[in-house]
């Protein structure tokens, strides 16, 4: 019998050399006459250990990492194909503390299965949720999602069930399900990891959404910066069609649902749901005014459910294990789990799926292990480029939507970007304005012009030119953007800017009184 | 095959509807490396749009190029998580090593440089992309090796 060896084909694993390692293992095993079955799995999300190679042994899977291509001969000599000991041995994968301390519901299969094997998918709990949904009425499915407490994972945290109810109730026979996989936020990669590691989970979630709202067509809108995910999702869609998971007769139920993947064009604003609809329709990605809500008048003018990829991929486990199971995780109105993403200058970066409620400090210290540079953490940006910078004084904040909102911060899509004490927060504030200027869709003046003015004003503050007056001007500009922008691009760019000013006035050459 | 014929073939592979516009543009750029001005006219005709509409879409999206790039395109990540891992120093080095700014091509036509805002490799930056390959933990030395390799591979 051949030995199963897992070498991830996840973007980050590949970015640090997994392809070379896979080739070397295949060649080395062949040279030694050992028959192996090489599985290109997704990543377990322990990125500081990538490329992390796993071997299936009678006692379970054991891991080695980070494996450099030069380590491969030594690993083979040490008998790693039978779980032999080696300086890179990490022991049983499931016992690695970073992984053992997680609560993986949505990511249960990522890194575990062969991403494109439907047999593997079914053997690890796949399709159970869909089969349950096929036996339910549309309204019952919506009720289960509502009862689970699932809120949108794309940023705004709107209850998924309520959105679905609106689409279900909207008149019309032509409706759509759109998966937002634009994942533009720096410091986030959970959509990408799920798509690369367990694409059938998204497909199952979208089919269930279609059953729930009465749609028979879906779109996945993926950013063009994710070439690996693009090839995996298209391969998965093809297999799902061949296997009858998609098509005119989903799993023999007589129900129809099909999905098309669309590639974005490198525009951050196309993550905003109405700009995304414009983009799918073949137009410039400009934000639409609401109302009408997309739930009523969305893609091609039809009622449309738009959800983040993680929202949709969390639906199968909810249907499989029940709403009560899911809502038992978390606290307050933040129920279930969130795949947090530890990024930037962090020692142990990667994906941490946990129930809401753990503190930011636990995430940064227990999981992250502090900075990669070994210097103190000075700030973390939570929730992407429109999220606030959080200083160490606030690290005991629980990761809970309401707790963060109360501090003028947001959890958003769960990205946590760590900076050490060499960061210059005035430059980060300037970058926030620069990014907004670069990515504004141009529809409204406070965002389009305000962001360029904001850059200039911050430049003057940094240069020491009439600091007090220019700081007052910057604050006014921020209020104008917050109040006068059509969407959160212009409306929330002030979050990182004002939080940097508030918590790190010295970086702007100000004392704390002047910064307000 | 001349550009015009390739463009026609790619247009014909899609339904003649406006929502095929981005897929068509991607198909053209994947094959030619850019979207030539004449393609605008051909697409407009096929999808029953005005040239201004098609041009408006092409110019809106950073991904699409309206002039031919160098033989390789390097995209450097400028976003926050890579900055936290030292991408600004890499950027300064890359700009100096190539002797170009963003959206420019080296004098020998070998490499074009573009900015990108996140490649989803945010725990292992600084990140860059060449073709469909994303490379992590790039420092100045690694960048120089990559550049040397790219120049060697070129025809
Ligand atoms: C500027 C901007 C960018 C956004 N980018 C994304 C994104 O990349 N992914 C995403 O899921 N939602 C993004 N959103 C939020 C979407 O507009 C929308 O709320 C979300 O897709 C709804 O899905 P959910 O309820 O499941 O979160 C963005 C919003 C704004 C204003
Ligand atoms: S706030 Fe900015 S991105 Fe949003 S609609 Fe206005 S101009 Fe467009
Ligand atoms: S003009 Fe679009 S990235 Fe510079
Ligand atoms: S910020 Fe550079 S890869 Fe995400």
Quick recap:
The complex is a heterodimer of chains A (516) and B (155). With 516 residues, chain A is an alpha/beta fold. Helix content of chain A is 41%, strand content 15%.
What does this structure look like?
The complex is a heterodimer of chains A (516) and B (155). With 516 residues, chain A is α/β, with parallel strands linked by helices. Chain A contains 23 helices and 16 strands. Chain B is α+β, with helices and mostly antiparallel strands and 155 residues long. The model of chain B has no long low-confidence stretch (mean pLDDT 96). The chains are: A alpha/beta (516), B alpha+beta (155). Chains A and B meet through helix 1, helix 11, strand 12, strand 16 and helix 18 of A and helix 2, helix 4, helix 5 and strand 5 of B. The complex binds flavin mononucleotide (FMN), iron/sulfur cluster and FE2/S2 (inorganic) cluster (FES) (2 copies). One FE2/S2 (inorganic) cluster binds at residues 77, 79, 81-82, 118-122, 125, 127 of chain B. Iron/sulfur cluster binds at residues 269, 287, 440-444, 447-448, 485-487, 489-490 of chain A.
